[in-house]
Every structure is written in C-alpha cells, then in structure tokens.
Amino acid sequence: MAKKSQTAFVCRECGADHPKWAGRCSECGAWNSLAEMRLPGGKSPAREVAGYAGEAPRITAIGEVEVSDTPRESSGLGELDRVLGGGLVPGSVVLLGGDPGIGKSTLLLQTVLGLQDRIECLYVTGEESLQQVALRGRRLGTDLAGRAGELTLLSETRIESILAACSKSLPGLMVVDSIQTLYTEELSAAPGSVSQLREATAQLVRFAKRHDVIVLIVGHVTKEGALAGPRVLEHMVDTVLYFEGDPGARFRVIRAVKNRFGAANEVGVFGMTDHGLKPVSNPSAIFLSRHEKPVPGSVVMVTREGTRPMLVEVQALVADHPGGGSRRLTVGLDQNRLAMLLAVLHRHGQVALFDQDVFLNVVGGVRVNETAADLASLIAMLSSFRDRPLPQGLVIFGEVGLAGEIRPVPGGPERLTEAAKHGFTRAIVPRGNKPPKPIDGLEVIAVAHLDEAIEAVD
Ligand code: TYD
Ligand code: MG
C-alpha cells in the first residue's frame, strides 16, 4: 500500500529539514523561517530510481575508477569558458544567479545560439513568451540572429512535462529560465518556494546525469542578495556562477563561486551592448580612464579577480566641509575600510581630514573586495586633499595596517607584470611584494611604512 504523504518543515533560508515546527532554525539560526511542506507519499516514478544519477548502486574500489580528462565543450564565449574552467562539461548542471535585468537570459540565449551547429540545444522559458525570446534572439548580432531560426524553444513550467518533452528528443544542452517558475504537482507549495525549487532542481540534476545532458539553470537573486532558497540549490549543482554588476553599468562580471570542474572565484568580464553581451578579454584596458593629463585624486591600482590581475582606477574627492557632520562615502570599496584608513592617515601620516567630505570611487562600476586597495585609496585621498596629481605611469597596491605598516598582498609578481604590460613605469608596493629580480621597464619602490609611501609620492 502506498504510504500516506508526510509533512516536513523546511527552513526557507538554508533549506534544512526539521521533523517538527520551531520558531528558529537550529541549522542556520534564522527566526520564523520554517515552512511546512508536504513530502510526496508512496513511490513516485522518480523515486523508483535508486541513485542520485539514476544508476543502480555499486561499490567500487578507487583504483578501478577510470579517470580520463573531462571532455569540454566550448561555449563559444571565451570569458564564459574561462569561469567554467575551460568549457561546459557534458552531464553537468550549472546554476547562473544574478539580479533581475542583469543579462542572464541574454547570455544563455547567446550561448545556445552559438552552440547550435555543434550541439542540439533546447531553451525552456517559463518567464517570457516564445515571442519575447525570439525577439531577443533577433537583437543579438547579425551572425547569431541568422541562426536564431534553428533554435528550439519550449514554453512550459511543469517540470514533469519539460522532462517528458526532452526525453523524446534528447537535447545535448538545455537552458531552464528560470528555476523560480518551475513547479511539480507533487508538492502543494507555490512555485519559487524552497520545496519546489529543491524538487525541480533535483529532477533536473537526475535528468542531466542520466542522459549526459548539460543543464544551465537561471536563478534570480532575492533582495537579501542570496539566491532564492539560497544554499538549497548551490549544493545540488556542479557549478554556481553569479552575475555581478549594476544593471545600469556597461560592464558585468561573472564569478564562479563553486565549480566541481575548475577553480572557484575565477571571473569573466562582459560588456552589455545593443547586440547582447560581448566578452572583454583584456579588462585592464577598459577600466582605466587614461586621463590626458594627470588629475589629483586618481590612482591606478592592480587588483586581482580570481587568478587574473586587473588594473583599475581608484578616485578620491576630498572637499572642505564647514561645520560638523562631514560625509564619507565609498562606491565599489568597503565603507568601514575608509573609516579605518582615515584614522591611520591621521595617526601615522599626520593628515587630519575630519573637517572634510571624503568620497572614494572605483571607476567603471567595479567592486574591489580586497585589502590591496588600501594603499591606493589612501594615496588617492592624500592627492585630492593636497590638490596635487600623481605622476602618470604610476601604480600602487598594498594593505595598510593599523600601526601604519604596509603589508604584502597575494599575487605580487602577477600584478607587477600586468602593470608593466600596460606601459606603467613605476610601482609603489609593500616591501614583502618586492620582486626578486627586476621587471623590464618598471621601477619598483618597496615601502614598509606609511611614511615611506607618502614620501615616495611627495
Ligand atoms: P535579460 O537578459 O533579460 O536579464 P535577466 O534575464 O538577467 O533578467 O536583460 C538584460 C538587460 O539588457 C535588459 O534590460 C535589456 C538589456 N539588453 C541590451 O542592452 N542589449 C541586448 O542586446 C539585449 C538582448 C538586452
Ligand atoms: Mg531573464
């Protein structure tokens, strides 16, 4: 006899299961986040299959496992291949998260249009009508638009119907846009709820593994900044990519936060144009504004995104603020770090900015999350305060400690090589990052304390 359906309580934040309701999730500590969900009773067709990948369980010795190089299919977009660790792996499931309007649908449509001649692709849309997808296809460059006629689309949101439609003519790659619109009738919860997301993703993963199909899933990010039903999906899929950047900005960054087939934290850079997203293979060149003559408050630094060094420009504006309540504002940098740097500048550099408004910005809508931006930010503020520009051809990076010491940062040699490659002739860097042998065309000034750095730009 089929078992009666049971209920479980699932945390909306972390997806943990609890047998009983509680006010607080014992896993992640979130309050009032448990929602009741009905578990499908009896044997559903999907559950008759024993393993996660749909194969019968078998115990194997590690030595018997055949190891071959993972075959990869290029996505046709160099920057996307880069974040994926070299291309798409057959049978893998990739989750692409990001704010609404950032370009997830555009990117995946471009990918499938480019792949058309090599792999059979299917684009499942639950969010937009077939017409909207077709219209977007036409907008994307002439070479891709020409091929848009061959792409197969499916407008459906019931997961079982989608998989049934695919099983008849198996595609090599399937895009699901978006996971939040999918549902299974086995659960009573609304589409987009944690239980529905989890079930739909589990079914897609099983399908991908069983039929060796590449599945690309679009997931929207909620206001809190996490993927709706956050970590629930991340652990189920092979690769998690996040689209970052301001929907209004021209450049977007895709970051791999998890990758079973490559390095995590790798980034790919794209520019949004009238004809879709264009990969930017040399980001250093675009994030620099290259002023004709030096301007006060502008400093070029070398940041590192994944394994890639990138030149970006940090700008500071320090302006008189008569009376109390001066403002401190950062864009693309950590606000708390600014407060700390101002304190260090006061104490160890004898420059007080308490009666000044201070604004810090990273040009091009880039976010720099690493401490290597400290020294560049500090020197940019000083340059703006003194209204004295820094010489052209100078790059600065390094972490600033509370005692005014300049601490080394990871990847020193790559950063310096990148600066030299783009024609920079002088670099102020932490002493710990001084290269063992000189770099052609680059004079390296190694500093251990803030005094020395200030002196070097005097
Ligand atoms: P979209 O890919 O639909 O974003 P998402 O699926 O992440 O919600 O749309 C991205 C935005 O990009 C949208 O506001 C329109 C714009 N866009 C362009 O600027 N150029 C283009 O060629 C296309 C297709 C979209
Ligand atoms: Mg979309």
TrEMBL record:
Motif stretch (RadA KNRFG motif): 258-262
UniProt keyword Cell wall biogenesis/degradation present: no
GO MF entries: ATP binding; ATP-dependent DNA damage sensor activity; damaged DNA binding; hydrolase activity; zinc ion binding
Signal peptide (UniProt feature, chain positions): none
InterPro entries reported for this sequence: AAA+_ATPase, DNA_repair_RadA, P-loop_NTPase, RecA_ATP-bd, Ribosomal_Su5_D2-typ_SF, Ribsml_uS5_D2-typ_fold_subgr, Rubredoxin_2
Key words of the record: ATP-binding, DNA damage, DNA repair, DNA-binding, Hydrolase, Metal-binding, Nucleotide-binding, Stress response, Zinc, Zinc-finger
Name of one Pfam family that matches: AAA_25
Annotated PROSITE patterns: RECA_2
Keyword Flavoprotein: no
Residue span(s) of domain RecA family profile: 69-221
Record region (Lon-protease-like): 357-458
GO biological process assignments: recombinational repair
One GO cellular component term noted in the UniProt record for this chain: cytosol
Binding-site list for ATP: 98-105
Domain-level remarks: The middle region has homology to RecA with ATPase motifs including the RadA KNRFG motif, while the C-terminus is homologous to Lon protease.
Function statement: DNA-dependent ATPase involved in processing of recombination intermediates, plays a role in repairing DNA breaks. Stimulates the branch migration of RecA-mediated strand transfer reactions, allowing the 3' invading strand to extend heteroduplex DNA faster. Binds ssDNA in the presence of ADP but not other nucleotides, has ATPase activity that is stimulated by ssDNA and various branched DNA structures, but inhibited by SSB. Does not have RecA's homology-searching function.
Classification via NCBIfam families: sms (TIGR00416)
Family: Belongs to the RecA family. RadA subfamily.
Name this polypeptide is given: DNA repair protein RadA
Organism listed in the record: Guyparkeria halophila
Gene name tied to this protein: radA
